[in-house]
Amino acid sequence: MRFDIITAVPDLLHGLIGYSIPKRACDKGLAEIHIHNLHEYGIGKYRQIDDYPFGGGAGMVLMAEPLSNLIEKLKLEREYQHIIYMTPDGKTLDQSLSNRLSIGGNLIIICGHYKGIDQRIRDLYVDLEVSLGDFVLSGGEIAAAALVDAIVRLLPGVLGDEESALSDSFQDGLLAPPLYTRPSEFKGLKVPDVLTSGDHPKVALWRHEQSLERTQKLRPDLLADEQAD
Questions:
Q1: How far is 127 from 124, CA to CA, in rounded Å?
Q2: Contact call for residues 36 and 7 (beta carbons, < 8 A)
Q3: CATH code (residue 102)
Q4: Helix axes 20-27, 141-152, angle to 10 degrees
Q5: What is the pLDDT of residues 17-75, one digit of tens each?
Q6: Between the CA of residue 113 and those of 7, 11, 12, 40, 53, what are the distances in Å?
C-alpha cells in the first residue's frame, strides 16, 4: 500500500513516520510512504505556494495550481483509492474508518497549512476529508501522520503478533480491558487471579466484561452509538 503525503513543511513528517510501526512496514515492503514537498511545485522564481484570500481577511491560503500540478502528476503514475484532505471539518478519524482504508488502495493525503487550501482543490480532487477532532492544528502534518499510523498497523504482516491489532480499543466498539505484566504484585496491588489461572476461556470472558465495564464508565457514548445502529 502506498501513501503519498503532500505538505508545505516536509520536515514535520519525517520524524513522525520515520520510526516504529510505519518504518517497520516500509522496511518489510508492506507499505510505501512518500513525502512530497509542495514548494517543489510552486509558482514562479520563488516557488510560491500560498497567497492572500479573495475577499480579504487574515492568514494565507495554499494556492490551487501547485497542488493541482502535483496531484495530476501522481495520478498519471498510478491509481488511488482516495485523495484525502486533512481538515477539522472532515469525517472524524475512528477505528472503523482506519479499518476500511487499510483494505483499500493507494492514498494521496493533503496536509493543509496556514488557513487551508483553495476550495477548488477540494471540489475537483478530494473525495474524502478527515479530521482528528473538533480542534485546529497549525497544519495537517500531525493529523496525516496519525492517519498513516492508524492504517499501517492494520496491514497484514506489519505487527509481530497478528492478533495485536484485533484486540486494540475500538475494534469491537469497546475500550480495551486493563493490562498487566510482571511482577504479579506491585506496591500491594495484585494481578487479578483469573489472568494467572491459565484458563483461557475465563480470561477471554473476564476481558470482555472489563471492556464493557470500562466503556460504560468512560465512554458510554460508544455503547449509545452501537445501540442506535
A1: 9
A2: yes
A3: 3.40.1280.10
A4: 60
A5: 988 899 999 999 999 999 999 999 999 999 999 999 999 999 999 999 999 999 999 99
A6: 8, 14, 12, 16, 13
